[in-house]
Amino acid sequence: MVDVPAGPFLMGSDKSKDGDAESGEQPQHEVTLPAYRIGKYPVTNAQFACFLAAGGYENETHWTKAGWAEKKKQGWQEPRYWEDARLNQANQPVVGVSWYEAVAYCNWLKGTTGREFRLPDEAMWEKAARGTQGQIYPWGDEWQPENLNWSGSNINWPSAVGIFPDGKSPFEAYDMCGNVWEWCSTAYGNNYPFEAVAYEQEIEGNERRRLRGGAFDHLQRYCRAASRLLNYPDYGNNYFGFRVAEHLSISGF
Predict the structure, then answer these.
(1) CA 18 from chain center: how many Å?
(2) Do the Cβ atoms of 229 and 240 come closer than 8 Å?
(3) How many other CB atoms are there within 10 angstroms of residue 135's CB atom?
(4) Chain mean pLDDT for the chain
(5) pTM for the structure as a whole
(6) Which 3 state secondary structure label does DSSP give 185?
């Protein structure tokens, strides 16, 4: 985990500064967050394997009501690409996970450690990715194609986490743009200006959810800190992953 200190940051895009800005990222505005921590890397296959080994897919207490119902309906016992040798190496980010599975992992981790782990919302994710001044990419405002795993890298698969050190964010978080899109807790309809929702309330239901960061087969315009993707919570793809966040106060946000 890496620390993200309390305070304001610029969220969203300013079209006059970022030509790739889309309407759903505007207006750029200031958001103030309490201190928190976020994963230095996306959750890896090795880490997710601990959830499987602990019986995470058999324990209803880790799942939301809608998530448990979907798990039973779909017969999930592991992530979608768990047996694919191109995607299941220990230090690759886990992929093929639905939003429901990502939330269940975070709930299991919270219960196992006694720490306030959760899936980050969009604001938590974006501040960790770009710092406080609204820079376009984790490393600054200028595109640096060698700093991430994107379509131009021609890797064509998720890469081991942390192998692009020049692409890390101001808070020392790696792979926040490129490699895999990352699920956030934020539901569709929570538009800008951003308003936080209490986590236990936010994760209920079956609304579509936001993803952030772009992926190994995506173009530059999607590999920006402000870029937003949307998908159904039961959907897993070979470029969908996640990272965890942690509240540092009992009140959370």
Answers:
(1) 22
(2) no
(3) 21
(4) 96
(5) 0.96
(6) strand
